[in-house]
Amino acid sequence: MKVLVSVHGRFHGFDLARELHGRGLLSALVTTYPAFAARRFLSPSVPLITAPWLEAGRRLHARLRLPGQSDLWVARRFARFAARHLPEADVFVGWSGACLETLSAARRRGMKTIVERGSTHIAHQTEVLREAHARWGLAWHGTDPRLIAREEAEYDAADLICTSSSFARGTFIARGVDGAKVFANPYGVDLSSFTPGRPAPAGSARRRRLLFVGRVGVRKGVPWLLQAFRSLPPDWELHLVGPVDPEMPSLLARLPHERVVLRGPVPGSALSAEYRAADLFCLPSIEEGLALVLLQAMASGLPVVATEESGVLDAGRDGKEVVAVRAADAEDLACRLAGLAEDPEARARMGAAALARVRAGFDWSDYGDRAVQLYCQLVGNASTDGNAPFEAVTSRCRRSESRSP
Asked: Are residues 38 and 50 in contact, defined by beta-carbon separation less than 8 angstroms?
């Protein structure tokens, strides 16, 4: 079995390609990244097909703050580029929004086709974000309707849709997509990069730190986090790590932000230190797939408070390895954060349980194993029920891999 991966940008497509290549199953990785940039994340032996002018155009559009959105322009051209450069493969995996034309070409070549969607169903995402921005009196320019139509056409055309969480999968089913066509494969984490820090000694004078990592804006639930944080004891401070969305300055003028530190973006190489310096992690997203930062925080031994929408219940069990809260509910969030803030022993127990959880099935190799089993299942024409256990297809996958060139 050979698998072709096509991703406009990087996302977790590079992680998937790396895992497939390590198993001898990657046909090629098609990406907008130039080869020299892709090699920073991948070994020199990974076969690449690149369209760097599209990546340059997208970044230039953002840097110059040109009018309109570049997403549709890049998506169309990348899908057509990939369709013209298809190598031989048994399975095609393309990223949503930028694979419509490639899906057709892959099917004509006899490939099984999978659409990777890193978030919820695009119609669900659009509706949730529109309502949330309106709730805070903010303008939201939304997703180009033509891009929504592209994605929905891709959902229809693909043999399978792969999401990253059970919550995201449920939004497809709620929109009428057959559940047997939608699968959830949680991401992995680099366990060598994210490791626990040393707990602060008892009686330490330093402030305790509640950490948030992600885009600082409405989608990640930051307005509700700011409301909830004011109920924490005065020896706590909130660190917001990540790029700040344009709407946040106006929100900060209306919301409490004492003891709140806006850190801005942090280089990936320095991110592990942010986790090790924290005492508690929170991600109250209102819309998401499975946030990679959840797994990074858990691998760092942090107790995690997050919404079901963040994918947290695919990462751990509520009340054991993680704490799940209701989205857009500052009161519920405040109650659960305060409980952990005031109980260092509970934080230590949950952080240790979270660490054990990710070590037992959430590194990138585990993600790769689940993906390969799913692809074998699809190529073998077996049931692709999104709830079917991976173990049921293990033997078939091994037979398929043994026949791979």
From this structure: yes
Domain co-membership, 243 together with 309: yes
Domain that includes residue 305, residue range? 208-359
What tokens does 63 get?
């840097």
Domain CATH for 83: 3.40.50.2000
pLDDT at 281: 98
Asked if pLDDT for residue 405 goes beyond 50, the answer is: no
Q: What is the count of structural domains for the chain?
A: 2
Q: Are residues 333 and 245 in the same domain?
A: yes
pLDDT (0 to 100) of residue 197: 82
- Per-residue pLDDT, averaged over 340-362, amounts to 96
Residue 196 lies in a domain: no
- Give a three-class secondary structure readout of 289-321: CCCHHHHHHHHCCCCEEEEHHHCHHHHCCECCC
| Token output for 337 | 């954060």
Strand partners, 91: 3, 112
Q: What is the DSSP secondary structure assignment for residue 199, as one 8-state letter?
A: P
Query: Do residues 78 and 94 make contact, with C-beta atoms less than 8 angstroms apart?
Result: no
Planar angle of CA 344, 347, 352, nearest 5 degrees: 130
Q: pLDDT-derived band of residue 66, with 50, 70 and 90 as boundaries?
A: confident
Residues 229 and 321 in one domain: yes
- Per the listing, tokens 């949680």 go with 186
- The first and second tokens of residue 55, run together, are 């990546």
Asked, for residue 201, whether it belongs to a domain, the answer is: no
Question: What count of other Cβ atoms lies within 10 Å of the Cβ of residue 202?
Answer: 6
How far apart are the C-alpha atoms of 289 and 350, rounded to whole Å?
A: 23
